């Protein structure tokens, strides 16, 4: 079991529910957060899966405050706070620290392509300096396929040298296992989270911290089981089972599919809503997804 | 000469100056806006050149209000209002309409890659419906190299069919002249702006509206001269001269270079500042740029 207030293990990038006017739906959000935390998961709201960049700063503040209001263990919460605008990243990160979040997960500014390493270093450094709070624990968010802005080892090394007590880890959503293993070995104490449950076992063997995967919204307990038992003989089988599950999900538009399954679990139709540019899962695709999961014997 | 309150001709994507704490510098911003409008240019603040995505919504509102406060002709202002978050795009677009802006220039939401046409249509449609103001004039912003999200002809046709009085034009920063010419011919009345001064002449010949180019911050009068005289014999020469100028600028990190030249023109050192992930122009590059412009006989 993960300890209260520590950020390791399996974190769920909490889905964001919307009302029928596409505004954030606070009660459904708190309900999911409570459900996931009750399963032993940490929370990583406002990431890619959460449609975090489709939310404004004030909306993210309101959603985060709703978690505080619900009495959840904020030490186990790692909100996404990296925006394109320096001022937005500072405001959100500062708010997260004040609300006791155990860490923040920070995308680099992602509008300008091919930024220099100097520019990216400055982007993170300016946020850290402006927040100016030694409680800040920053996890870098490496997702080059989506952000188009890789977090290179050169950048990590400069940040670790400048802010060793603040820059404490990374979520690697590149799907490149070799990169995760290299970071685990090259940067002792730096907490490497795999962005996919496919690599929980090898990343734990390399000394990683855990996993932050979209699918934890619906299948977190199986991931947590592997994370707890990675040194046991069953680990290979548990990892293989997660691979079967993930392969089914990868055939689908992921966020819409996760929302459809959450709608089924909770009986709340509204969970199916997404903000554009995403589109909700088509009913026929939803039926197909449920059939495939059933055929694979996966019970969510 | 462009007429007051109409959006055609040459628009400058106004650079955004920062204070020594990297906050928007209102007096310098208003000073540049007044200077550019005094040259006969329209204004397109908060685009790529303006570091628009490096500014928060409240900062853009404050900057726009400063233009209103300065008594500028807002009918000749086309602010960028397209953000990743639906709520941000609605807030900014609504504010721009209320402040009398002649139009808005709207990027698609650019975090999620490979969105469906349905999703992109919904992204624009939701903003239009929520703003709900028949004064809104929306120009699409096609800049696939930067946003990674192209505005396809299929999408344009759906938007024109649904919102013919609102979706009135496009800025094409793709550098693909054939695309601009095709749109000019395919969509009568749809105002096509070239995103580069290299194509003012062919785009005007195809029936386009004008040009919105970064370089108008420092060299707008030459562009406007060509735009006014495109049917005269000198037009080919004027276009060729602009090509020489642009080739020199393209060897530089463009936004930082434009800011350095603006700092030189105004004597205001602070113009050199950029927000990360951009970096200021190195002093040696600035000297090289000034030399090259001098050798080409270009007086700014």
From TrEMBL, chains A, B:
Keyword match Hydrolase: no
Residue sites binding pyruvate per the record: 49, 212
Active site, UniProt feature: 141, 171
Top-level division of the source organism's lineage: Bacteria
CDD domains: DHDPS-like
GO MF: 4-hydroxy-tetrahydrodipicolinate synthase activity
Stored InterPro entries: Aldolase_TIM, DapA-like
Keyword Cell inner membrane attached: no
Keywords assigned by UniProt, alphabetized: Lyase
Family from the record: Belongs to the DapA family.
PANTHER family, per database record: BLR3884 PROTEIN, DIHYDRODIPICOLINATE SYNTHASE
Protein name: 4-hydroxy-tetrahydrodipicolinate synthase
